[in-house]
Amino acid sequence: MTSSEPMKAPSATAPHAYDAIVIGAGHNGLAAAAKLGRSGRRVLVLEAANAPGGAARGREFAPGFRSAGLAHLVNRLDPEVARDLGLSLAARPGPAMPTAVLDGEREPAVLRGAYGEAIDGVTAEEAAAFSRLRDKLVFQAGILKRFLRRPPPQLGAIGIGDISTLAAAGFGLIRKGRAEGRDFLRMLLMNVADVADEYLEDDRLKALLAFDATLGIHLGPRSPTSLLGLYYRLTGEVAGKAGGQFIPEGGMAAVAPAFVRAAESAGVTIRCGARVGRILADRGSTRGVILSDGTELTAPVVVSAIHPQATFLHLVDPVETGTGFLRSIRHVRSAGNVAKLDLALSRMPNFDGLSGRDHAGRIVIARSMSHVEDAFNPAKYGEFSPDPVMEIVLPSLADATLAPDGACTLSALIQYAPYRLKMGWESGKPAFLRIVLDILERHAPGIGDTIVAADLATPADIETEYNLPGGHWHHGELQADQLLINRPTGAASGYTTPIEGLYLASAGAHPGGGISGLAGWNAARHILAGDRR
Amino acid sequence: MNALTKPANAQDARRAARDHILAPRLETPFHPRLAALDQVNDWYNWAGYKAPHAVFDEELEYFAIRSTAALFDISPMVKYRISGPDAERYLNRLTLRDVRKLGIGRVHYTAWCDDHGHVLDDGTLFRLGEQEFRLCCQERHLPWLLDSDFGLAVDIREETDEIAGLALQGPTSFAVLAAAGFAGADRLKPFDIGNFPHDGGPGCSSVTISRTGFTGDLGYELFVPRAAALSLWDRLWDAGGEHGIRAIGYSALNRTRIEAGFIVANADFVTAEAALRADRVRLPDEIGLDWLVDPNKPHFNGRRAILDARRNQTLKHILVGLEIEGNIPAEHAIVYHRGKREAGLVTAATWSPTAKRNIAIASLERPYGTTFTDDLWVEIYAMRELKYQKMMKRAKIVPRPFVKLARRTATPPGLR
């Protein structure tokens, strides 16, 4: 704070030599910075951690074993963003990454291609039924998708672009006939369980839909509107195909560097270990930031690519925003439900019934729709699932550098593990870890003996590690009341905030989380469009 | 302990929440004295308290305010104690005026808005110390006040029930204070606050007196802990005998406040939290409070909306003072332009005995009152033995206050 304290990273340029300051070098912050940088603006990215990447920041969780961060696969990187920013993140050539659903009894149901273009392990009729449902959901998700690449419409200021998007959505809706349009409106706010029951018999496929619809969201498959989560998943595409997934060449550890390269090649300066202490605001407009070491950096535009609550509850002086606004920011629901497990294994595990090749895919452990619902029930009351559902990836198969020779890493996203655990995570964590390891042992006998180290990150840990309030990777529940014009809240939707010059660009802004780059890219485009107004 | 204040513990909270139903209409600390003096038994509900419309005669009570001294019980006025290191910053964000300019021992009139710039209430802010304030107003706002304290070191407590308040208003009000032995009260300038010794029993050794009021006259407001209320009343009453002191009700006070041009929340405008209809809310500039808005002070609730409305000229209403021909009060009369086109509504009206004019406060829809200020009329419906007598009377926009009294601000005040 004092002037006698030397600055850690003295900048060659004057402190106000930037057109924009981006807070947070997560992938959205880097996408926003890259987009702004490409327009010729001088952009500085400030990252509190010692390395860029945000939740995609890798870390060593046991000697010799690394994890690539929270995300363990890519399923929604926006191709337009990737093209525009020159992101070099592509799937390895070859067959698409499969998804295997394990129920512990039957052989796995393995979805191949983009979200089960072909399915092994189920009857031909069931595969055909899944295909009909998949086509319908992909069509419907396609209608919603056109809203993702632009700021949500602002009530009271609907522009030509909004009308054309709405018109295109309307046209898309009736393109396949009135019956399809009506079916979309019927299904939009349904729960995934009822929809799956309409089409499917096989519990494993229903379980998968239930899992994918609710992963990272505080809903069970039978909760109203739970289908929205599945739509969101299916708005993601890989190689032009909806619902695909991949691990890029070089593994997930390649994700953050790709965004960093995109930003740096756009002339962006990234400064790590530079924690922002305050966003400077005076009478409704910002002029920069103060780092926690006291350095003041000024710029006419500040882009906050961190959680909206972290932005407004911690960095902006509360007296600089309105009481009503701050109340709505405080009410953003952002309590995570997913725990992340990183296992260091002495050798590759062997999941029952799964071919060696399919171990490189995504493995989902969920028996049935009811299994997912039953797993959700305790979360409503602040308890973790005694029989959780999970998604597993073996990251070291795609990136051998993550583990020593012959060894292996396992990454699992497990739900439900509510952020506010009644018993507290201190005592809850060992108990939950035991449950998870028991399940893994059941599905991959012998895995327990090969465990070198286990690192379970509860939502509370994730909150601390990544400065993510609630440990929620969407930066706020992705539910109907927190979408579009209400994401994160009315007065700060559409990337602008009540503070002039301060913009939101994280997953907490439209359209939401996942490695898509859209929130950051959209925000930057909105800022650039504002310059032309 | 009040049901709306922060409870000290859960048991107190439960008890407080339970007991309030036993007294659906509360009595103020001065009730025994008021009830004893009361001749007309004409009570109304003021924020949950029993308060008199009139005590003996509205007309004579009015003249007590303007000719001698009037004692009016303001205990039901909602009062919040706001204290702590961030109290000034907190209030500066909450309210329209610059609290940094409010000196210790001073009062200012102010108002506060929601995020959309719509007025939540107006009131008076007392700076009792560097970090100690009292906010007085018409409506209750505790949830809003508490929600405004996020991230700030400030303590907010409602003290309506604990603090008894009396307004002593009128040309002999200072004489009453002097006779009651409040030495030094002559030094109080308008909007000054002073503490004066008062033996109010255990725990009360002083009374807080501010030179404020709602009458546009020379006058004071006195605040003591509830337990000291009656001793204060008696002290003033005993001293006031020689100076024509009278207890008064709201009807007389209301006439003087109209003369003074003051507005009342949810009478002259609908507060943002009370408004059910989307078009009933008002920006400060739409109810004559534009002068409170300080764009140069630090950020405050509603700032952007208010300044945007000014810049974009989207203000929809304006509050004006009207002088109306004749002597029939035009209460709630419709205002017309050229006798035809509706231009607004009279929100308060009275015959002013002091100004000898028929006066009114009206809310007009712009551009009436801004561009079109001439040729205004009010349509008065006077009920005359079960028949409305309709009168179209000419109205003229005139500045407020309608009555301006030199004695209100004279320091030292007169003893007459």
Oligomer type: heterodimer
Bin the strand percentage of chain B.
Answer: 25-35%
Let me know the number of strands of chain B.
Answer: 19
CATH architecture of the domain at 20-57 and 255-333 and 477-532 in chain A: 3-Layer(bba) Sandwich
**Amount of helix of chain A:** 25-40%
Low-confidence parts of chain B: none
Rg of chain B, rounded, reads 22 Å
Give the CATH topology of the domain at 10-77 and 161-260 in chain B.
Gyrase A, domain 2
**Biggest sheet: strand arrangement of chain A:** 7-6-5-16-17-18-15-19
**Individual helix count of chain A:** 16
SS-based structural class of chain B? Answer: alpha+beta
Overall helicity of chain B: 10-25%
CATH class of the domain at 10-77 and 161-260 in chain B: Alpha Beta
Order of SSEs of chain B, N→C? HHEEHEEHEEEHEEHEEEHEHHEEEEEE
Strand content of chain A: 15-25%
The CATH homologous superfamily of the domain at 10-77 and 161-260 in chain B is called: Probable tRNA modification gtpase trme, domain 1
Straight-line N-to-C gap of chain B = 41 Å
Could you explain the architecture of this structure?
The complex is a heterodimer of chains A (533) and B (416). Chain A has a domain at 20-57 and 255-333 and 477-532: FAD/NAD(P)-binding domain (3-Layer(bba) Sandwich), CATH 3.50.50.60. Helix content of chain A is 34%, strand content 17%. In chain A, strand 1 (20-23), helix 1 (27-38) and strand 2 form a beta-alpha-beta unit. In chain A, helix 6 runs antiparallel to helix 7. Residues 1-13 of chain A have low confidence and may be disordered. An eight-stranded mixed beta sheet of chain A has the order 7-6-5-16-17-18-15-19, with helices on both faces. In chain A, strands 10-2-1-14-20 form a five-stranded parallel beta sheet, covered by helices on one side. Chain A is an alpha/beta fold. With 416 residues, chain B is of the alpha+beta class. Among the domains of chain B are: 10-77 and 161-260, Gyrase A, domain 2; 278-398, Elongation Factor Tu (Ef-tu), domain 3 (Beta Barrel). Helices cover 19% and strands 31% of the residues of chain B. Chain B has nine helices and 19 strands. Chain B has helices at 10-19, 31-37, 58-67, 87-94, 142-147, 173-179, 229-240, 250-260, 303-312; strands at residues 42-46, 49-54, 69-73, 78-83, 106-113, 119-129, 132-137, 155-158, 163-169, 193-197, 206-210, 219-225, 245-247, 317-324, 334-337, 341-352, 357-365, 376-383, 388-398. In chain B, the strands form four sheets. A six-stranded mixed beta sheet of chain B has the order 10-11-12-9-3-13, with helices on both faces. A six-stranded antiparallel β-barrel of chain B has the order 14-17-16-15-18-19. Chain B has a five-stranded antiparallel beta sheet with strand order 5-6-7-4-8. In chain B, strand 18 and strand 19 (388-398) form a beta hairpin. The model of chain B has no long low-confidence stretch (mean pLDDT 95). Chain A binds chain B through residues 281-284, 313, 317-327, 330, 491, 498, and chain B through 89-90, 92-94, 114-116, 144, 147-148, 150-152, 295, 298-299, 301-304.
